[in-house]
């Protein structure tokens, strides 16, 4: 039986992105006695107002190959992550033409602590850095895109996020600089396996539960300006097979975006 979680709406509505099969079996249902950790994300279908994106992931030795096809254009994006001793190399090819290349360094704690991405012309696209506490939780992340930067500080409570502080810096237009507080609420559903990206477990210790809601506050005005809310379907293995993500402008609670993602796993 599938478990369905749906957030109950409230009139007092007070949001990582980022990175992104050669297996003998493919199924989204666990067999008795099998652990969720044996599963790997193998397909994500994202449905939004702009179309449908389909991502397939193949695990091949030290390589993870991620291919995305979009319904609104003919481009095919293939990202390959290759694991080495203390690092991952990455490359992005669009319609068989090199587009981006990157390097991810692995810290002594086993988690990635820095990411470098370059365009095909060798100019820098972005540099990101990750910081961890002694328990392995990611406590800070900076993402620098040359003209602007997001600097997140993450705070935890009982194995989940309590809130983030984001300092957005626009280096070309400083008047756009701002600070946000992002407050989290969680479901009771355990976070068994990340369904966001194939390398999610390389960026720190996993959260205890699935996120229910993110509330964005402007720290200068202290006003709520946006909320992200999530609904899930979970299979017998406890793996997320569907996520519905809604974004609301606040305080009017106006729905401005809805995305649905459907996941499959291999083992």
Overview of the structural elements:
By secondary structure, this protein is mainly beta. Helix content is 0%, strand content 60%. The chain is built from no helices and 17 strands. It has strands at 3-5, 40-48, 51-60, 63-70, 76-83, 87-94, 97-106, 112-119, 124-132, 138-144, 148-157, 160-170, 178-190, 209-218, 223-234, 240-249, 254-266. β15 and β16 form a beta hairpin. The protein is globular.
Number of helices: 0
Report the span from N to C terminus. Answer: 20 Å
Mean pLDDT: 87
The helix/strand series, from N terminus to C terminus, equals EEEEEEEEEEEEEEEEE
Fraction in beta strands: over 45%
Derived from helix and strand composition plus strand pairing, the structural class reads: mainly beta
Q: Strand order within the widest sheet?
A: 2-3-4-5-6-7-8-9-10-11-12-13-14-15-16-17
Unreliable spans: 1-36
Q: Total number of β-strand segments?
A: 17
Please describe the topology of this protein.
Blueprint: E1 3-5, E2 40-48, E3 51-60, E4 63-70, E5 76-83, E6 87-94, E7 97-106, E8 112-119, E9 124-132, E10 138-144, E11 148-157, E12 160-170, E13 178-190, E14 209-218, E15 223-234, E16 240-249, E17 254-266
Structure summary:
The protein is 0% helix and 60% strand.
């Amino acid at each position: 039986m599938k478990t369905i979680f749906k957030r109950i709406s409230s009139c007092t509505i007070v949001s990582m992105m980022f990175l992104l099969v050669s297996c003998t079996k493919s199924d989204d249902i666990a067999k008795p006695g099998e652990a969720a950790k044996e599963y790997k994300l193998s397909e994500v279908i994202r449905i939004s107002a702009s179309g449908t994106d389909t991502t397939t992931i193949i695990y091949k030795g030290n390589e993870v190959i991620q291919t995305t096809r979009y319904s609104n254009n003919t481009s095919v994006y293939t990202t390959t992550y290759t694991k080495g001793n203390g690092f991952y190399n990455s490359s992005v090819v669009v319609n068989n033409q090199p587009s981006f290349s990157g390097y991810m360094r692995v810290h002594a704690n086993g988690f990635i602590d820095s990411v470098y991405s370059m365009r095909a012309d060798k100019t820098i696209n972005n540099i990101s850095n990750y910081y961890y506490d002694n328990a392995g939780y990611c406590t800070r992340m900076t993402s620098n895109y040359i003209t602007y930067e997001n600097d997140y500080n993450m705070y935890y409570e009982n194995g989940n996020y309590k809130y983030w502080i984001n300092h957005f810096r626009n280096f070309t237009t400083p008047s756009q600089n701002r600070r946000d507080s992002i407050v989290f609420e969680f479901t009771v559903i355990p976070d068994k396996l990340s369904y966001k990206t194939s390398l999610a477990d390389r960026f720190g210790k996993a959260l205890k539960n699935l996120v229910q809601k993110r509330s964005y506050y402007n720290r200068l005005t202290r006003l709520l300006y946006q909320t992200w809310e999530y609904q899930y379907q979970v299979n017998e293995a406890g793996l997320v097979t569907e996520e519905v993500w809604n974004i609301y402008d606040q305080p009017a609670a106006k729905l401005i975006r809805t995305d649905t993602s459907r996941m499959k796993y291999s083992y």
